[in-house]
Design a protein that fits this description.
Blueprint: E1 4-5, H1 8-30, E2 35-41, H2 45-60, E3 64-70, H3 76-88, E4 94-97, H4 107-113, H5 125-132, H6 143-156, E5 165-169, H7 176-185, E6 189-193, H8 200-204, E7 209-212, E8 230-233, E9 237-240, E10 249-252, H9 257-261, E11 266-267, H10 275-294
Parallel strand pairs: 1-11, 2-3, 2-4, 5-6, 5-7, 7-8, 8-11
Antiparallel strand pairs: 9-10
Helix pairs in contact: 1-10, 2-10, 6-7, 6-10
The structure holds guanine.
Length: 301
């Protein structure tokens, strides 16, 4: 079997088109323009690239978009003051503080200071708790698992995953745990595996849906995969690529793509799979925040 390659770029573009249309509608009907504030501390080049692309995409969607670039030496109090100002600003519906933060900042305290109804990352305890208790109609769901879930549902052609087994490899707060909760909410039978799980290949081989989010390049091999399974690769790892020339590198996921694509029913590539979905879902979350503020039902994706 050769797997269907899941085109994350196309699905992300589809989400952004829907967000653009719903934004225009919201502005026309209620006068509320979705607003997003991104806060970046310090000069980490990778973070700067992410933050710039978030700002560009927000503008493309028709949002009010502000970026606060703070010096790496900013104090905890000063950063919390900024978060509180954004919490109180009616023009802002989504706040994202780019992680990681410098070592002298207490990341947890900053995240918990964000108003839960503006926490478009879905990292606040209130949103984590709502997702865990199935109250997704008022929660914000973290963007990467939300995007992974949309790709899974589109690939399988159904929203209800009753009767299917899912193995999530990785138990991070940002991806593994929320992904498991989303799969459970969709009625899949879910197992979370991690570095202490015995016989990981044997467990993965039982899964109709495999989600890999461990940060280990090409760890999931072709002979681990149940024929016809849906394989979602959340990993982004840069590895040496001597075949491209001396000193060259390439991006790979946590899944050995070439091997798994021979066995799976559908599979996300890296790049071009889950990656483009993250920013698209951030835009969708910000629109959702604005719709809630305006008392309007957010559009279904
Ligand atoms: N840094 C890398 N990914 C993320 C993310 O999804 N949200 C935030 N706030 N920071 C990040």
């Amino acid at each position: 079997m050769t797997a269907q390659i899941i085109d994350g770029k196309a699905v992300a573009e589809d989400v952004v088109e829907q967000v653009k249309a719903a934004t225009a509608d919201l502005v026309a009907k209620s006068g509320v323009k979705p607003g997003i504030a991104v806060v970046i501390v310090g000069e980490d080049p990778a973070s700067q690239v992410y933050v710039r692309s978030k700002g560009r995409k927000a503008t493309e969607c028709g949002f009010h978009s502000v970026t606060h670039t703070m010096d790496a030496s900013i104090s905890q109090d000063h950063l919390l003051t900024l978060v509180n100002q954004l919490n109180a600003d009616p023009a802002i519906h989504g706040i994202l503080v780019q992680l990681p933060l410098p070592d002298h900042i207490d990341e947890g305290e900053v995240i918990q200071a964000i108003a839960p109804d503006k926490d478009v990352d879905g990292f606040h305890f209130i949103n984590v708790g709502k997702l865990g208790t199935g109250q997704t109609d008022t929660a914000f769901v973290p963007c990467t698992p939300a995007g992974s879930m949309l790709l899974t549902k589109r690939a399988l052609g159904r929203d209800d995953l009753s009767g299917l087994t899912a193995v999530v490899v990785g138990r991070s707060n940002i991806v593994g745990k929320p992904m498991a909760n989303l799969l459970l909410a969709a009625n899949a039978t879910v197992t979370i595996a991690h570095s202490r799980t015995p016989d990981l290949p044997g467990l993965v081989a039982t899964a109709d849906i495999v989600v890999a989010a461990v940060g280990r390049p090409q760890m999931v091999r072709g002979d681990w995969i149940k024929p016809g399974a849906c394989v979602i690769d959340v990993g982004i790892n840069r590895i040496d690529a001597p075949e491209k020339g001396e000193g060259k590198t390439r991006l790979v996921g946590d899944v050995h793509f070439e091997e798994c694509a021979q066995v799976a029913g559908s599979i996300t590539p890296v790049p071009g799979g889950v990656g483009p979905m993250t920013i698209a879902m951030l835009m969708a979350n910000t629109l959702t925040g604005a719709c809630r503020a305006a008392g309007v039902e957010p559009p279904p994706l």
